[in-house]
Specification:
- By secondary structure, the chain is α+β, with helices and mostly antiparallel strands.
- 48% of the residues lie in helices and 22% in strands.
- Strands 3-9-8-7-4-5-6 form a seven-stranded mixed sheet, sandwiched between helices.
- β4 (125-131), α6 and β5 form a beta-alpha-beta unit.
- α1 (9-20) packs across α2 (27-34) and α1 packs across α3 (38-50).
- The radius of gyration is 36 Å and the shape is rod-shaped.
- The chain starts with 8 loop residues before the first helix and ends with a helix.
């Protein structure tokens, strides 16, 4: 029975011998009647003393051992079991394991399909930036999600007519020689798709990696800030050749 409570076979044998003896016993007699090897007896006795199952004493320079009374053992094991159950209840919590992979996507049709599917899963928030024609394609999903209570925020390059509450618009200047086509979608701050043109072909990455998500959210608001600054202070900045030169090099 003790083995069911986590005691080893040798520990159980030692306790059984001591519990059934009317007198304390020394190590020699415990070895004789328990069957525990002499080489192991002191190690086993030491463990049982630490567990509070065996008491030891020195009498006439001889070390003697006796077992904790069985009634007390039953109470002790019952109490410890109940405490362990309560501790398990209190300490057990669900853990989330995050997928830190960064997945590559190619072919424009696949990227668009993955983007729409990701948008449909949004429950809390959507951050989207891209060019007008790309945003127009997913606009029905964005508007429906906002009706459902999802916080939708969009940065669009070009004019966009929509019912969305939070749309930031960038109208490119003719001097924008570094402005490249791109798409960025961040859903619930847990998953992101970023796509861009490379060698005339669309390529994208998709990830739930938290460091990447943090970077892309900051990336989104960096673009929003630049769009707002350009919109409100365009004339001032475009008349300053130094500031204009720097702004025109930004990708947005």
């Amino acid at each position: 029975m003790l083995q069911k409570f986590g005691f080893s076979q040798y520990e159980s044998q030692v306790f059984e011998v001591l519990a059934s003896s009317e007198e304390p016993m020394d190590a020699t007699n415990i070895v004789k009647y328990s069957g525990v090897p002499k080489s192991k007896i002191y190690e086993v006795l030491s463990r049982m003393i630490e567990k509070g199952m065996v008491l030891d004493s020195v009498s006439e320079k001889k070390k003697l051992y006796t077992a904790l009374p069985l009634s007390i053992v039953i109470e002790k094991l019952t109490t410890e079991f109940q405490q362990n159950v309560e501790q398990l209840k209190n300490n057990t919590s669900k853990r989330k394991f995050y997928d830190e992979h960064v997945w590559s996507l190619k072919v424009d049709s696949s990227i668009r399909a993955q983007t729409k599917q990701l948008l449909q899963t949004a429950e809390k928030s959507i951050r989207v930036s891209g060019w007008q024609d790309d945003i127009q394609e997913i606009l029905p999903i964005l508007q429906e999600k906002e009706k459902q209570g999802v916080d939708v925020e969009v940065l669009v390059v070009g004019e966009l007519e929509s019912t969305l509450s939070h749309v930031h618009t960038l109208i490119p200047a003719q001097e924008h020689h570094s402005l490249e086509r791109f798409r960025l979608v961040v859903v619930d701050e847990t998953e992101v798709i970023f796509a861009g043109m490379e060698s005339q072909s669309w390529q994208a990455l998709k990830t739930k990696s938290r460091p990447f998500i943090k970077v892309f959210i900051e990336f989104f608001y960096h673009d929003v800030a630049l769009a707002k600054i350009t919109e409100k202070h365009s004339e001032l900045m475009m008349n300053d050749e130094e500031i204009k030169s720097v702004l025109m090099k930004l990708r947005y």
